[in-house]
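Late entry, evening session. Most of the bench is empty. Finally got around to the prediction I had been postponing all week. Sequence below, unchanged from the version circulated by S.P.
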Amino acid sequence: QAWELIGKQATHVHRFVAVSQYCAAVMRRRANLPASKVTVVRNGIDLEGYDRIRPPVAGAAIGYLARMCPAKGLELLVDAFITMKRTDRIPGLRLRVAGAMTMADRRFVSKMKRRLAARGLMPWVDFLPNPDRGKKQEFLRSLMAFSVPVIGGEAFGLYVLEALATGVPVVQPREGPFPEIIEATGGGILVEPRNAKALAHGLEEVLIDPRKGRILGQRGRDAVFRDFTSRQMAEGMLEVFREALDRRP
């Protein structure tokens, strides 16, 4: 009903702004909008604190930074980690999980901890709920690979930019906005969505070849600093506003 109402009121709107081509396509389809009504202004991040060069990582660690809930794919990543620990192709591998954890998320997080504990893996896992900005950046610098394997849709995924800004390569599902982000940054690889074995294989591909991981991470970091800053996002919005003003009756 909300999308239907948006479509009905579209004649009063000069421009709708989407944060990705994927998001724009969803907006056009759900609200029945003409392509001329939708402009893409890609998300950007504030790079303060990301200018520090990441020191060499002491051990192999894969990380997750998003809300600790089923929709963001944390359970899928936990299953991929269990698979990786079973094959043990990467000795000493750790899983580090950070992000928002609300009261509603506690039962789900407890379930994930029980699943890991049942396999004796909790000593290799860290849960860091509700970190501040500084702690997030410190957390990202401790990783060798990053993944938030979202289940279903996502408009963009700022966490991908945050990981890449730190020089950490990402492994994301081949759906939603992630193919266009990976194409634009070159900072990671794509895997089959909703498939824990495929995710485990993709993470191993990055971790087993440290040189490849460094190349992907540096390529992604360069792209974020060049093309995905908060300033560029603001300038993109200013262009939309200027166009709207120029076309006033």
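Two things to note before I forget:
The chain has a mean pLDDT of 95.
The longest helix spans residues 210-227.
Will write this up properly tomorrow.
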